[in-house]
Every structure is written in structure tokens, then in C-alpha cells.
Amino acid sequence: MKTMKKMMLLAVLLMGAGVATSKAGVAFGINIDSGRGSFGGGYVGNGCGQPSYGYGYGYSGQYRYTPDCSYGYGYGAHSALHQDLREQHGDLHQDLRGQHADQHYALRSQHEAIHRELREQRYYGVPGWERQADHQAAHRALREQHQAGHEDLRDQHSDGHWDLRQQHRSGHYDLGW
Q1: Nearest to residue 10, comparing CAs of 39, 33, 34?
Q2: Do 64 and 56 meet the contact criterion of CB atoms below 8 Å apart?
Q3: How far is residue 13's CA from residue 16's CA, in Å, rounded to a whole number?
Q4: Cys-Cys with 42: which of 8, 51, 81, 117 at CB 3.0–4.6 Å?
């Protein structure tokens, strides 16, 4: 059944481009008349075939409105799916940028607190070698925390894109694409 639909779509597209012959149209039950044609009670125009009342069945068997093809609005279910995915993608990156900025702010605050503590230790007479060891240990811990934060952001980014790809596939399946 899917093969027949694909072949029919190919014939419609080829005829719209002026490539297919009238015999191909007849073989698929398609009639062309002055740039527009009909198939199974619908019509073909500009290489796009739709039932005459603007509705169609997807592969999933669900009834859906398809104005992007028949009227040229560009806001059909497929366009809406992609617009929603673009918005979610933008939200994902905006959230990650916010988290990244928050992590760096927290690290800078911790870094400043460490240096305040080290100045205070110097004021109270803590030996330099001990302060230096604390300073190095604190910087090592901050560096590890920084790297772990970036790794977490990379994981969230990867997971977010995977989720978007799954939604894209699922959306196309639901639309019968």
C-alpha cells in the first residue's frame, strides 16, 4: 500500500514538473487538464495533490487538514510540527545558556570567597605554605566543578537534541509522512 502511494506521489510530482507522460497519469488514474488534474475525487495543482475539500488521510489513518498544500498558507500540521520543534530547540539552547551563566556566576562567587578566606588566613598569621596548599586545593576543586558543570551541560544538550529528534520522527509518523 505504501509503495503504491509513493508511486502515485512520484507520478503527481513528475507530471507537475512536466516530466511524466499522459500514459503514466492514466496508469495511476490521474487526469491532467490545463495544468490541473484530478485523482480519486480530488485535484492536482502545482505538483500538489489534495482531495477537493482540503482534507486527507495520513498513513496513520487519521483525518487531518492540509491547508499548506491546497491553499498555500504554509501553516498545516507539518509546518506547525516544525515550528513547534524550532521553538523547543530555541528554548533548549536558551535554558542551557542560562544554566551556563548561572554556573559561571556560582564559580566566580566561590572563587572570590576562597580568596577572601585566604586573605583572612594571612591576617591571622597562617603560614604561607599552608595558605598556598589550600589555594591550590581550592582551585583544583573549582576546576573539577567547572569541568563537571560543562559535562553536565553537554549531556543535557545531547539529551535535548535526542528528544527533539524523537519528537520529530513521532510527529512525522503521526502525520503519515
Answers
A1: 39
A2: yes
A3: 5
A4: 51
Cα separation, 83 vs 66, whole angstroms: 16
Residue 62 has pLDDT above 50, yes or no: no
Contacts 24+ apart (CB under 8 A), 160-169: 160/92, 160/96, 161/89, 161/92, 164/85, 164/88, 164/89, 164/92, 167/85, 167/88, 168/81, 168/85
Grid coordinates given for 32: 491532467
Characterise 61 by phi-psi region: left (phi > 0), alpha (psi -120 to 50), beta (else).
Answer: left
How far, in Å, CA of 13 to CA of 59, rounded? 19
Instruction: Determine the average pLDDT of the residues in 12-28.
Output: 45
Rounded to an integer, what distance in angstroms lies between the CA atom of residue 108 and that of residue 154? 21
Query: Which of 7-16, 99-108, 113-122, 154-163 is least confident?
Result: 7-16
pTM over 0.85: no
- On the question of pLDDT at 113 being above 50, the answer is yes
How is residue 27 written as a grid cell? 496508469
